[in-house]
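PROTEIN DESIGN WORKSHEET
SECTION A - STRUCTURE
LENGTH: 51
TOKENS:
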């Protein structure tokens, strides 16, 4: 399923895709790394709750 989405993005000339994994999710991190994704140490995510 992921490859279908990535191929669709590639057809639209989108050259990069990102995903979010919780720091404590060791299974998720291992899964994505084994499927060719890599961790970006130079990026941070900022969020703001707008209640």
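SECTION B - SEQUENCE
RESIDUE ASSIGNMENT:
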């Amino acid at each position: 399923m992921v490859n279908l989405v990535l191929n669709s993005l590639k057809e639209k000339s989108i050259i990069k895709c990102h995903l979010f994994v919780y720091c404590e999710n060791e299974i998720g991190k291992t899964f994505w790394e084994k499927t060719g994704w890599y961790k970006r140490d130079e990026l941070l995510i900022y969020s703001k709750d707008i209640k």
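SECTION C - NOTES
The chain is about 35% helix and 0% strand.
Residues 17-51 form one domain.
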